[in-house]
Fold these 3 entries.
Entry 1:
Amino acid sequence: MTRILHRSIGVALPHAASAQGVYITDTMGRRYLDGSGGAAVTSVGHAHPEVLAAMRSQIDNLCYAHTSFFTTDAAEELAEKLVDLAPEGLDYVYLVSGGSEAVEAALKMARQYFVEINQPQRRHIIARRQSYHGNTIGALATGGNAMRRQQFQPILPETHHVSPCYAYRDKGIDETPEAYAARLADELEAKILELGPDEVMAFVAEPVVGATLGAVASEADYFKRVRAICDKYGVLLILDEVMCGMGRTGTVFACEQDGVTPDIVTIAKGLGGGYQPIGAVMLSASIYASFANGSGLFQHGHTYLGHPVAAAAANKVVEIIARPETLANVNAMGARLQSGLEAALGAFPYVGDIRGRGLFRGIEIVADRESKVPFDPARKLHAKIKRQAMARGLVSYPMGGTIDGINGDHILLAPPYIIEASEIDLIIERIAESIDAAIAE
Ligand code: PMP
């Protein structure tokens, strides 16, 4: 009997009791290898002594002071650190409590920026199909995940969607990655022209798609082309790195690998690393200046903005992520995960694609490899894989259902950055067994 409205009602969940490193232990004493960091949250591992010490020290001094009245050393230091690590041009930070809040704030920043610079007619948001930007109304409207939006559609503000960069399904056999990227950029440009170039506010995209497709990175110079089109029409580029940022893909910011700097970037999950709920929006100096020289106010705010204990935890998490040995391990273990999955699953008739960057890897399951036809969503294969993996002591992040006409089952693997080779091998072994067992069910 539970009094909690869990996401899946009637599904008995183990009670997590403690966690250390890459393992979570339940109240029955069972140990689970955290192969997905929850939902790509656990970045520096569980119970990292340095993070715990930083939080304790903050708790002993100050737990809360409202940001209308005070700032704190913890928040100021975190902002400084993030700006130091970010691609040049992202000079200011707005601290929130999670990913959806970060996306909401980013959208409002974009809107207020255009009001401040006397372009109040700019209001359209363009994002991509098969994307996820959060569950609050504005973020949900921005995302293109049909399944998550479905029943809320009538109350969502209008947004517009173009194709994601999803080579496995959409790139023509004879099309080069460059030609594919150019085709997608043309589609974005056509959408801007259709809506009216001086009425479009922002283009929003995840550099590596997470919660909808399982670690799909872009091809060739896709984001450089997108950046050029945004610049051509004065549209802001908002990159959502809530899931793929903070070292997850092997660089602190995922967009570093795409060679672009957005006007606004959102981060969350790995930033708090599971220690505290925290997210952040980073913005360009020109957006900041438009507020500072205009109304002198960003017309937004939540009670727990810049929470000092969350900021203190994130400060230490970011410091650990930025250490060269941490990112080196993300890259080495990420490569091991990719090649190990290819070796273990490459011959499975129902594994269509294995992909990703760093410790952000996805497996796409198909009923037939040749035609790429997915399994019938009614089979709920992703839910079976999740259950089979849990029974084998592995936390993974399978997702599925009907998504914009593509019925797909995907598995996201995103273990903590401190993972070791033997643990990577265990993830591979357990996920291969789980896929097999789920299909046999
Ligand atoms: N954006 C992206 C890219 C995400 O993956 C998520 C969460 N999966 C969110 C936003 C929303 O974050 P949160 O769940 O912390 O609100």
Entry 2:
Amino acid sequence: HDAVVSAVINVDVRGPLISRHLYGHFAEHLGRCIYGGFYVGEDSDLPNEGGIRLDVVEALRALNIPNLRWPGGCFADEYHWMDGIGPKADRPVMVNTHWGNVEENNHFGTHEFMALCELLGAEPYISGNVGSGTVKEMSDWVEYLTREGDSPMVRLRKANGREEPWRVPFWGLGNEAWGCGGNMTAQQYAAEARRFGTYSRDHGGNKLYRIAAGANSGDYAWTETLMKQLGDLGCAYRPAGYMQALSVHYYTIPGTWQDKGDATAFGTDDYYRTMVQAARVDELLTGHSNVMDCYDPGRNVGLVLDEWGTWWNVEPGTNPGFLYQQNTLRDALVAGLHFDVFHRHAGRLVMANIAQTVNVLQAMILTDPDSGALVLTPTYHVFEMNKGHHDAASLRVDLPSGAPARTVGSAELTTVSLSASRKDDRVLVSLSNLDAAEPADVVLDLRGGSVTGVRARILTAANLQDHNTPEAPAAVAPRAHEQVTPTSAGLRVHLPAHSFVTVEASLA
Ligand code: AHR
């Protein structure tokens, strides 16, 4: 008999809004994410606009991607934006020392990134260079991008073909300052961030949302230092404040940094270890939020998880510096679990960015370097199936004690995960059965509204290792889920082993 779990959801008690920015993305100059991924150059045979690959844009538009973080990552702190403007032939070549020691010709720069955001309908999130850049360099970049009227940077922008300023809402003050972004202590970084934050000005109507480079995983002391040193939100004299949010990075790595595990050749034990690591994101967001609550009980400073996702050993035969990995049903379940956690933290968590969108780490899209064939990954489908949560009100889900669980080493993994939201007269419930072998049934006891219609979809496959390839692009793809039955106790949803399901209920 399947495990039966009852979940109570009061559809008329709306919780914090789930910002669409929790479904944000990240594109670094790393491996084949930008070059050969998003950007193939104007001379490519592949359909492109200004070198930007149009089938990639089309696939991502279907996700309504809300924002795109660029140019890094570690690359951000060695990127000098002035090298990436003007005629391409004149742009200097640099070495991407972090990622494969390859040459970077700077053909994808500020104008190309902003054009990409326009094509995607996504808001730009630019990470400025604190580690090896200057305050003036960052200040000039903001001016170049966002100022109207006349100024040295405005004249330069216009000379490069762009009359109107762009709108740039999200501004990162460096990246991983504790590591690749300068190996600073929290104190040192806080002092730097105050200077860089001060001179990253609001020009005209463009209001920057400054995001300070935050902690590595569970480094709560880092968050505490930033809250003490930067957390004040400004005053009449200095209205912008130094930062409006701070970030944290957390990757799901069940192995060690030396041997992270294989993306496709894994066993059941590896799978459960992965899920335990993924579920840890809840503990980390809670820990950082608790620290922030001490200094900012009104929740004015946002928490941004601007790098998350699985990190496996690279695919055999690929450049170790390019972080190219396959993406299976297991990755999709990791994503589903993260989103449930994000929805529960919607009161503090204002943005999250999966690493990374194309051809790097837990990607949405993989492209073949030879044929150019494009494949949508299982993770892509979770983003698509969860689109209805964007800017919806979170709904609390109460599970009784005794939900199915597995003991994994010293950890207990609850194997049924769900979250819900409401927008107008529509409730969306996302459900995951993380058990590798056993099905489960969840009875959704929706209170406070009567259900007039139901549409359910499922993402699963015969094996956790299944993934999509150019030869079998839909091996793991969503389909209609018929096993949703109205009962006197609520909607009974059958969850096969290792499956992700969305149930959309229309209310009277
Ligand atoms: O996403 C890959 C790298 O992981 C990023 O460049 C860095 O910020 C993190 O360590």
Entry 3:
Amino acid sequence: AGVSAEPTSRTYDCSSLPKFCFEKARVPKDVSVKKLLTDALHKNQYLKRLELQQIKDMVECMYERSYQEREYVITQGEPGNHLFVLADGKLDVFQHNKRLTSMTVWTAFGELAILYNCTRTASVKAVNKVRTWVLDREVFQNIMRRTAEMRQEQHRNFLRSVSLLANLPEDKLSKMVDCLEVEYYDKGEYVIREGEEGSTFYIIAQGKVKVTQTSDGHKTPRVINTLQKGDYFGEKALISDDVRSANIVADENGVECLVIDRETFDQTVGTFEELQSYLKGYVATLSRDDKKRLERSSSR
Ligand code: CMP
């Protein structure tokens, strides 16, 4: 591998700027260029899982950089500070000086070191004069951070709207938001299976699920309830060691559940006893219909 020719960071310093500083890194560009960059990022197998807004922000902040024939754009083994899209010219990819492949225009590369914090897995060298679009690592990280913060804010607001958690003190709710996982299910997928052990609690953030249960004399489980956004299930696992008393099956595509495990719940919200007394207090505030629902769910 030769000398690294990665562009040096531009003049803005994101680390010292407020959280949404990547706005300052926006570089105006033609709509047609934005479309080509967006498609290139979407085509990359590692970048395509990013959210649309993240890709959009990345495209906005990319800037142009040219390389001369035989110049190294990336050097294997070095830290990576930039993500690239090839716009014009030809690039070769080498590993340990062995040529692996060449790259066609509108291909994104250099994503691995940026996404996974590893050193460059290959060298990338200009075969002829090359034009690229570049995204700085700090800007990429700021975009990711901003999305994570926005997501947390959405989760916090949503959890606050869930009746069970409405009176939870702010610090506990924040801890819960920090620790929760998000899971997605498509129609027909099982979130919980009857009879299995489980120690996770779910709140539906989007979509509907069916609650089904096996009963004596019936081979196939019967639908005993449907739950939707704001409803929760799996709460029994938080207060007892019983196995799951019903199946929970996604009733549409893209059901989004916020998932909290027992350990997290203990550490953030409190002990079983605290939870039980909280639930008791909560039940006291419910309307008769709500109480029936809770009784049904806790007798599952
Ligand atoms: P990164 O490791 O950050 O820097 C080198 C880049 O080369 C790497 O990300 C990929 O984008 C690209 N790369 C690595 N291995 C291959 C390969 N076998 N074929 C094509 N591109 C590769």
